[in-house]
Amino acid sequence: MITLINPPGLKTFSGLNMHTPNPPLGLAYIAGTLRSAGYGVSVIDAVGEKLEKITPFEYREDLLVQGLDIEEIVERVDPSSNIIGVTCTFSTFWPLARDTIHALRQRFPSAFIILGGEHGTAVPEDVLCSSEVDVVILGEGEETIVNLIEALDSKQPLSEVGGIAYLDQGTFRTTMLSPRNRDIDSIPVPAWDLFPIDQYIDRHQINGMNMGRSMPLLATRGCPYQCTFCSSPNMWTTRYIPRDPILVVDEIEYYKKKYNVTNFDFQDLTAIVKRSWAIKFCNELIRRNLEVTWQMPSGTRSEIMDAEVLDLLYRSGCRALAFAPESGSQKILEDVSKRVDLNHMEKAVGRAVRRGLKVSCFFVIGFPTETKETLRQTAGYILKMARLGAHDISVSKFIPYPGSALFVSLQKQGNIEINDKFFISPIDFYNRDAESYSTLSSRRLYWTMIIMYSSFYLVSALLHPLRTLRTIYKAVFNQVEEARYAKWLVDRLFIRKSWKRRLV
Question: pLDDT band for position 204 (50/70/90)?
Fold first, then answer.
């Protein structure tokens, strides 16, 4: 028996935004793959099984733990489990994952424990030396975990399994990263029937805006770009592989029937790169007339967003998307290898707004080469987004994410100390005292962020008063989220209050 575990999550009340959990899509793919390979699989989704449970976080008093506590997780593990897989996608959750692994090792000393996810891929040696993990899977996990289990069953040495890291009598070793799976259409669909997916759906615990009963979806894997602040090249390489758009629509139709969902959140890092793929996908959705909406909350590229594509997006049910200029300074964009044409981005934003799509724009401030002048350039570009009609912006402080090129560079310079404080720090994107990795102080970055938000929404409200009032009304009275600031209002007025009541 193989038991897969999604550890508890973290929430913060101190920042501008509160983390929203997401169904563990990667783990669901792993579960589906193992089951398809003939293995018995059980799942413990600590977050999904107890979304309403919160407890204090022992490492920081301003944070809360969401989901089953560690003792409850251990009690739920099938005693016959000889292999236990734990996921840790975000480094923020590593302390909780590590403590979970420690408790599992105490209860099941002979079990073989595997860690998957971006955190392990980013810092495998630290994971192995600081926990009782036997093997870390590096990169894309479906093929690797099957190969690993087959090797364990046949008692082959770990050195013959590609794409893993382990300790050999105390010596850290890695094997050559397994080639990316080009035929991703052959990967079994997520085994959501093993997860409390209805809990997420019923409580709107999905990454995107609340546009109805929602499911997460993945249409592509990887990203062809090499932004130095992103961990994707380390996790997925730079090979971008889209699924067959017909099969993606098949999955949408299946979920609509099985779970009565009406909206889909595309969790792709870069959802649409190829114009031909977008056209084929949208046309198939239109042809089937499924009457669903969908959104791209994690971002997409602007290069293909001409009038024809945007029209097809809207007609197929797309209602919200995000672009990621990251900075309004060309110098900063060059410094972080962000390949984006700001002039082209402006045209795409204007076209999308005119077609009726709700547009968000992502910005990051405080990169290592950030200056007062580059901040002014970004502030000016943000105002330009407001004048073009963009509905929302997200401005966060730069924090070097493990596995990114900037993380490696700053670590070599001695600017990063690997410890729990650092791993948890990404949750402080929006906090006043989040550490600065530029010559500008943390407080300056924070107040610059506040000014950027304030100026954008002031200009937006002045230019689009009726739109703003309608969005606020729906958020306050119906808890409907038509924009990210509506999501923020719902968080502040309803969600945080309900969570705080549970602490009393």
Answer: confident
DSSP for residue 215: E
Strand bridging mode 63-66 / 9-12: antiparallel
Could you give the count of Cα atoms lying within 13 Å of 91 in the half-sphere of its Cβ?
26
Distance (Å, rounded) from C-alpha 360 to C-alpha 204? 20
pLDDT at res. 404: 96
Query: What's the pLDDT tens digit per position in 8-66?
Result: 998 876 655 556 788 999 999 999 999 999 999 999 999 999 998 988 898 888 888 99
Beta strand ranges found along 358-466 (DSSP E): 358-365, 392-397
Architecture in CATH for domain 208-398+438-463? Alpha-Beta Horseshoe (3.80)
Domain residue ranges in the chain: 2-174, 208-398+438-463, 465-504
- Quick: pLDDT tens for 443-467: 999 999 999 999 999 999 999 999 9
- What per-residue confidence (pLDDT) applies to 203? 85
Q: Name the 3-class secondary structure at 296.
A: strand
Give, in order, the Cα–Cα distances in Å from 333 to each of 341, 342, 369, 404.
10, 10, 10, 16
**Overall size of the chain counted in residues:** 504
Alpha-carbon gap, residue 251 to 198, rounded angstroms? 17
Which distant-in-sequence residues (6+ apart) come within 8 Å of 28 by Cβ? Answer: 190, 191, 192, 194, 195
Backbone angles phi, psi at 332, to 5 degrees: -60, -45
Q: Which two tokens stand for residue 202?
A: 């019923």
The second-level CATH assignment, the architecture, of 2-174 is 3-Layer(aba) Sandwich (3.40)
Segment 159-171, tens digit of pLDDT: 999 999 999 999 9
Question: Distances in Å between the alpha carbon of 160 and those of 144, 154, 177, 182?
Answer: 11, 12, 12, 22
Give me the sign of the Cα torsion angle 260, 266, 272, 277: negative
Task: Determine the angle formed by the axes of helices 372-388 and 442-463, rounding to 10 degrees.
Answer: 20
